[in-house]
Amino acid sequence: MSKFGVFKNAFIRVNGVDLSNHCTELRFRERSAVIPSHAMSDDYEFAKPGLFNIEASATFLQDFAAGSVDATINPLWANRSEFGLLLRADSAAVSTTNPSYSGLAFIESYSPIGGAHGANLMAEVVFQPAGNWSRLTT
Question: Is 126 helix (H, G, I), strand (E, B) or coil?
Answer without folding.
Answer: strand
